[in-house]
Amino acid sequence: MPRTALLAPILALACVPALAQTGDASSQAVVREERGNRVTENVPEIPAELLQRLNRYQNTRGASVAGWTRDGCLLVGTRFAETTQAHRVCEPLGMREQLTFEAERIGIGDTAPAGSGLDGFVYSKDVGGDEFWQLFWYDLATRESTLLTDGKRSRNEEPLFSHDGGRLAYSSTARNGTDTDVWVMDFASRQARPVVTEGGNWGAEDFSPDGGRMLVTRYVSINEWYPGEVDLASGELRMFPVDGGKAGFGGFRYAPDGDGVFYVSDEPIDGEPQEFRTLRYHAPGSGAPKILSGHIPWDVSGFEVSDDGRHLVYATNEDGIARLHLLRLPGLTPAALPELPVGVFGGASFSPDGRRLALTLNTATSPSDVYVIDLAGGGLARWTRSEVGGLDSDAFVAPTLIRYPTFDAVDGRPRTIPAFYYTPKAPAPGGKYPVVVSIHGGPEGQALPTFNPTFQFLANELGVAVLVPNVRGSSGYGKTYLQLDNGMRREDSVKDIGALLDWIAQQPELDGERVGVYGGSYGGYMVLASLMHYSDRIRAGIDIVGISHFGTFLKNTEDYRRDLRRAEYGDERDPEMAAHFERISPLSNAGRIAAPLFVAQGRNDPRVPYTEAEQIVEAVRNNGQPVWFLMFDDEGHGFAKKSNSDYFGAAAVLFWQRFLLDHGTGATD
């Protein structure tokens, strides 16, 4: 359970378009090929012309801030070869010096606090996407990495230094492989011990200024967190009361005095239920918490407190657009910030002296880059300029936010669903644009207007419109909306896709007879479910690491995830829920999927096991539908290595070209 960043990480999966196939696919032999770590079935050879056409779009990259070093440089995560690695940048638009050279993607964790005597950072690394992350210390003086955790089949994440650098807290499944405990390491001796072993999914939030206490949270679901404080000397765990009994939270930090706390919560205020999460401050003995963002009717997505105790920055998510707010401490008075480009923030970090704020900014027409704000002078400096493959960024398409009516009503009026709409700039050759509907995962995620080279390729190179809906169950639109797809209401979100198909059919510029659906993880389930219900209106679909049957998914997902997913989807051990899963799961209804399907999977996926992909491929293929299958043996829940991601992206484009972009029938392999 990750600590809340300033704003949720930006997710982007590759996708792209396709001609219809005739004939009985069940009578055609399955053509299986194994090349290195890649397994394909019925995926044709990728034409050289297509690879060349995609090349520049697949060579865009972004950069994200991970923290400051003690000498005033920034740690940045970016990719220049196969995987994302750690780099250092020491001035605006300065040279990026690569520090780590791992074969696997790394995640940069916490940096050593200034004044600790340490000079380096902690990073995480798994093997082949299995998500059994181990933690490593990178020493900037020696340029050497040292393993910190057990190196076994344990999951270790979210490293957090105490303010003096003497201790390192992190979450780990090392005790029993199922529960996620909070561990604390004496960093000098590298001896670690679990300090919270209550069972469930726990995370460390913050050390007190004196290092004697630590704020922790237990995560049950997006709507249910339980905060507490552990005394590190005695091991005593004291849980804080939660107004209303159950609520969602978004981070806890000690105030600079070590007594009060800042946190984000959707607990009731004065007995009134709250739709959105607000930033709050509470000091012992002060009565009710002080609401700091109550004037903003949107979620606070995260916040940070400067080490010098003079500033707090928080971000709000306003209809998918991020807004940044600065408060001076201890008075909590608003402070001015320079005007920022409209976009999405991926993280923020105060400099050790508290004078500067680094943040990651992503927009729909530019990849993530790092900017630094001078808090005293108000200046804004760009520290990285990521490549866009030599493309003209002025030609990129920015989406518009639309809302379309769905099947049910709110206060007597049709409920509307928000969606980002990417329209090609060039006129449609046939008068109407074909459409790809991209469905996010989660299900508690939110599609944001971030830079996506796949969407830009679809729009600029293939003349395809892209619609990215936030169907019910998405975060960012209030607690009621978030819970509309829970339990027995799971297929209501699929009905929102049906309503989008209705909306597409009514738009004069869109071709309602050429619609494809695309999604990963839970979005992959949504692709399969949409094809199950609307194959008569959907030409083709691409499912990446998607759930095909909730019962088998919950049985086979890793032990540490099972109860977390039961909280969202339902408990398969309940006969009524098991019967519901059987009714709604695409695997049980494969005979209704009457459209070409492309299924892509990572062999090491700990979340959605590869068996979910294999079983739906076999079932739909037996139903007589063209099915392409792709699996990488060195990937997990998505494709982290550039060569794998590039191949999938090219295969996806070819699939769209074969099954979406034609205007009639008769196209065959």
Automatic annotation (TrEMBL):
Molecular-function GO terms, alphabetical: hydrolase activity
Keyword Repeat: no
Keyword Ribonucleoprotein appears in the UniProt entry: no
Signal sequence, start to end: 1-20
Matching PANTHER family: DIPEPTIDYL PEPTIDASE FAMILY MEMBER 6, SERINE PEPTIDASE S9 FAMILY MEMBER
Keywords, comma-separated and alphabetical: Hydrolase, Protease, Serine protease, Signal
UniProt domain Peptidase S9 prolyl oligopeptidase catalytic: residue ranges: 450-658
Entry protein name: Alpha/beta fold hydrolase
UniProt-listed Gene3D superfamilies: alpha/beta hydrolase, TolB, C-terminal domain
Pfam families registered for this protein in UniProt: PD40 (PF07676), Peptidase_S9 (PF00326)
Alphabetized InterPro entries for the sequence: 6-blade_b-propeller_TolB-like, AB_hydrolase_fold, Peptidase_S9_cat, Peptidase_S9A, WD40
